[in-house]
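Hello forum,

I keep getting stuck at the same step: I have a sequence, I want structure tokens, and every attempt I make locally crashes halfway through. Rather than fight my setup again tonight, could one of you with a working pipeline run this one for me? It's a single chain of 449 residues.
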Amino acid sequence: MTVCGIIAEYNPFHYGHLYHMEKSRQLSGADYIIVVLSGSFVQRGAPAFVDKYMRTRMALEAGADLVIELPAIFSCASAEDFAGAGVSLLDQLGVTDYLSFGTEAESLEPLSEAARILAKEPPEFSAVLNDCLKEGLSFPKARETALNSCLFPFYDSYRPKCFETKQVSSVLSSPNNILALEYLKALQRRRSSIRPVAVPRAGADYHSQNPDEPLCSASAIRAYLTSSASIKANTDAPAFHSADKPAGSHSIAARPQIPAHMMPSLCARLLMESWQDTCPLLTDDFSPMLSYQLLACRDQGYTRYLDVSEELSRRILRHALDYHSFTEWANLLKTKQYAYTRISRALCHILLRIPQDTADRCRDDGYTDYARILGFRKNSSPLLSAIKKNSSIPMITKMADADAILSPMGKSVLRTELFASRLYTAAQRQKFPSCPRLPDDYTAGIIII
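Reply #2:
Ran it on my machine without issues. Output:
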């Protein structure tokens, strides 16, 4: 039995994802594909466009054999924690042979070399990184500078011929490469036997907003669906972030038409069947909830939450009265040092009440010590049997059993996940008055096709 893992968001599932899944199976020779899927919130610090149950069904219909949830404490975290948690889950299942991910690089060798240095963080790397951060550089730029200093002056004796100076910038500047680098780091740090499989990105660029390109991005699909005649923004709505336009309160006008080249037909149909009822959810749909949470915690500051530094906490406090919406405030708070996504993730951690110390303990303890099944295909019973035999962590198939099988840390991670899910469902019901009664994590059940 050969098993390939994929860590994904599928927000929503599109032809690029289908290409990656099929190419992963082909390159790895996998009999089974396991997808570790973000839950209610995604890595850029935003709610999922459609809920995790619909995205699970999309993944299974497209060919995935098993879908496992990536808990919210890591799904909306930095690329390092997002990748580290996903790799940890796949590794602890005890059956995963390959990890497949997309890259913009033509070869894994430069990425592997960079990952080796970043995983070890030699003293010269840390010194340059800290100096650059003190100078006010953003973390990505500081890391690029520090990596350059290690790859060339210090490591000329063994630097691979494939690595040229100009490659460092390209390796660290493209989204797929950034995540690929973190996956490789996580595999190296765990000394995992899982082998990496790189699938060169095909079609549109990750950030492309052009919906007419072949294999257009999830960003383009979200932008197209929310900027077409499907959503009306209030006339007094504040400024918005491009990935979430339009901002402010929303009312659904009509189901948009999804062009055939955007999404597999079944995935498009699933999305449209729930349009106006349960989706889409946008970042600013959580503005009132965030406003309450920020006011409730104002006297204590925000540094106890994940990714909120002293400086950022003070900045949030200074701009407390300038608040209009989630995205407007993220734009207001961003600086040269703090990019929009960094701010958005920090605000998301405050919204979800994710403490820094809990995240630190989880990271030190291997991220998560349980795997929750969201869905599987009926013909994947040999895979499930192999996981049951080889997994070093418990599998949650019934939420009612979770309390009896989880460690204290596992229970803490699951509590955060349950809170995130309930918050997501509350936003759905607030935005869509005709929203049907939705199942919660205890009543939803596993999706089986």
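The longest strand covers residues 32-38. If your local run keeps crashing, start a new thread with the error log.
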